[in-house]
Design a protein that fits this description.
Length: about 400
Amino acid sequence: MLDGKRILLIISGGIAAYKSLELIRRLRERGARVRCVLTEGGSQFVTPLSVGALSGEKVYGALWSLTDEAEMGHIQLSRDADLLVVAPASANLLARMAAGMSDDLASTVLLATDKPVLVAPAMNVRMWLHPATVDNMALLRRRGVLSVGPNDGDMACGEYGPGRMAEPHEILAAIESALALPERPLAGRRALVTSGPTHEPIDPVRYIANRSSGKQGHAVAAALAALGASVTLVTGPTAEPDPAGAAVVRIETARQMLDACLAALPADIAVCAAAVADWRVAAEAGQKMKKGAGGPPALALAENPDILRTLSALEPGRRPRLVVGFAAETESVLRHAADKLARKGCDWIVANDVSPAAGTFGGDRNTVHLLRRDGAEDWPPLPKAEVGRRLAAAIAAHLKDA
């Protein structure tokens, strides 16, 4: 399984770094090519000479090395691998990964990669159980980072508990499992997804909005990322957690959403699943509007930008190759969706019934129809996560055929 696979091994500081030497040996025995990044802390426990001798490759360590950058720039280094493995993964490096820092070669490579990442944490038991580390690991897992260990056991500091790095054979098995994940047919593709409602302010405390939880749009973003796409999710206010593997841009209004979408281009795929408010108040009040004897105020409305139509009408080179819209209807679902497909200029429409009886808004299930210009597919009632996966698979198949 590992024959010919390219592994980038990042060795951070910790006494468990000595186990990384055994891991390199076992990987090479199985035919893998191993390149190594040694952090400043890691070099206190193992030397570049020993790492290089076992890997048979140049060992990288300095972000600002002109020679290293000329031979193998950090961006290329981050992507010229099938899998990135951090072993040991110290509390410090995990924290910097969670924060998106890039102040040394290891953190920069991890931030710049578009490949799967596997971490093998190793640290003192109290550091592992500290709420900061617990939160960091939870965040990394939500982003799709894989992990193995740590194990319980005696530590170099004399304490006992969880924090020992997994053994080389356990890390090896986790590497094989990671590389055995389903194919990533959208690797190298860029996707833009919109999700959630928009909030259009009336005054500083009131707004106009649509009834959208963001569950379906977030599920689409997660499914596209799982197939390897580089996903930018532009989302209105929602309680949904960030989908693993997606870069999230948060907005409030329709105009902000349009600006964020245009900034995320170029993209191969655009899926407009957000429930964008069609109108906004033409003149937002600067202070809270008070009740008065004259009755409620008259609110003059202005039309919001049409994000789906704008993306569909972009000039070649800027327009995504596939633009998918959503049609949330309460009656005559297919007729209104077909009309929307014709009016908006997009390629596909995903139509769904959002009438109160359907329970779609805020619920976990959805019943959709996929309309293309050459026909329609009726999907059975499905969990929203499965709708996202089916749509992502259809997108991948379309781009492959194209």
